[in-house]
Amino acid sequence: MDNLFDKLRRLRADEGDEPPVRTDGGTATDSSRSGFREFLGSDFVQSMPFWLPPFLLAGFFVYGAIGWNLLISLTDSSGFGPVDYSSLDFEMYARAFNDPAFIEATRNTLVLLIGFIGICLVFGLLLAILIDRHIRFENTFRTIYLLPMSLSFVVTAQFWLWMYNVNNGMVNAFLGLFGLGPFNFIGNPELVLPAVIFALIWQFSGYAMVVFLASLRAIPQEHYEAARVDGASTVKMYWRVIIPQLTNAVISALVVLMVFGLKAFDFLYALVGGFQPPNGADILPTLMVRVAFQKNQWAYGSAIAILLFLLALGVIAPYLYYEYKQGTI
Fold this sequence. Notes:
transport; single chain; mainly alpha; Sugar ABC transporter permease
């Protein structure tokens, strides 16, 4: 016991010691402990209870699921049962590139994305320029153009199913005034994809209009006045002065519209009430779901999902790089 009390007294004496004095008269400090205390007191550590749980959850359920999907795509798994990870290869990717159904779905996906995004951007820009001219009933027009975006894909699909009806649809009735039709827009493989693209443009061009209108309103009036003083016509003023300043709006709208375009699976599913879209409108998301959940070919479906993910990443990556160069992320 005496030895124990002696050790406790020495320990308390050590804790009460004054910091060692340096030869120049200052007080020596332990730099490693000071740096660690500063790290614990930093905003990064103090804010950790708020951002770390959602970060871990998103990392596990989103990026972890993508990684697991990639691993399954390297197997030969099909049907229900345990997945055999002992033999990994790229057989499913080779199968995809030699599958006519995958090639057709890829072509339809690219046509849908390019047609939908390109026309949506142009139409939205024209609407924004028109409304930015301070026309009468500006707020009413803006609400009318934006209203279809508030509808779900199920409602939109049923609405356009009636509009495209061969016998009594409004579209065929309108074309009939000019001696055209009637056309079977949903049943004709050559018309169904343009019909789907037109329906998506109707729903989401209002979003592009709002994005462009906000950017147009942010441009100083001095730029318009300087262009007019230089003698530029209205077309040249917008083409050479105003539109080049809408780069950020174009990129932002492009990324969001691409996400909407890839969600056309919901529209096609609601249009026909199943995984098999009309002939000529099969896209990668519908093919992926059909292969995975109807045919139970999990590995092949996972390979299609990874290729679709790479396609989306190829569009979003330039946007992320641009934002990184701008210092916004």
